[in-house]
């Protein structure tokens, strides 16, 4: 019996040389290939969430046996890592080498696209950091981020901190927004209906009502008739603050 401690450590699906084998005749198994398996994995994760995802569920969706899937991937972790990188591949990355392009505009573009991925696929944020994230799409995203931030004029030893400030903010904002949308959908409500429901529930709790009353002025001053407008306004202004901070530090030298 092989003990867990004796098993080789798993690093990344991108470091494995799993052959993309076909069936006994040499053809593909029921039309399967790794790209199709990844595509269906993303669709299942979007529809049912991370907790319900399994090799067996994926095989049923593909209308094949679970063993057929194992011809292309070794574990569920492999599937999740492939799906994660596929989500990164949905972003249209700007060209940081283009002439006369403002780094501010490109940084905003990257932040907005990353946020959109996190909101569109709420399962992405729990997977970020779980894996090495060395898939081709994530590496392309990371490279462009580094190239854009290099053009800010900040010293080299400050660039990783700058990237963290911007994209960890986006990660947190997009993650919470994705949770909000998931909760709304679970309750069968729109964003605005769930927001009004949540405020009404909190207002009836004495300990929360006082805090809500204190924050009402801030919420009203923020403006926006819909949740989408409020979230867009908050995100845009927070990103403006970060960019203004970068500009101030560059000017300070």
Structure description:
- The chain is mainly alpha-helical and 253 residues long.
- Helix content is 64%, strand content 0%.
- The chain has eleven helices and no strands.
Short description:
With 253 residues, this protein is mostly helical. It contains eleven helices and no strands. Helix 8 packs antiparallel against helix 11.
Q: Percent of residues in beta strands? A: under 5%
Major sheet attributes:
none
Shape: flat
Low-confidence stretches at least 5 residues in length (pLDDT < 50)?
A: 21-27
The averaged pLDDT comes out at: 88
Based on helices, strands and strand pairing, what is the structural class?
mainly alpha
**Cα end-to-end separation:** 62 Å
Annotation, overall tally of beta strands: 0
**Overall radius of gyration:** 22 Å
Can you count the helices? 11
What order do the SSEs take from the amino end to the carboxyl end, as H and E?
Answer: HHHHHHHHHHH
| Helicity level | 55-70%
Index terms:
single chain; 253 residues; mainly alpha; 11 helices
Chart the SSEs and their pairings:
Layout: H1 34-48, H2 55-62, H3 66-69, H4 76-88, H5 103-120, H6 124-127, H7 136-150, H8 159-186, H9 191-203, H10 206-222, H11 227-252
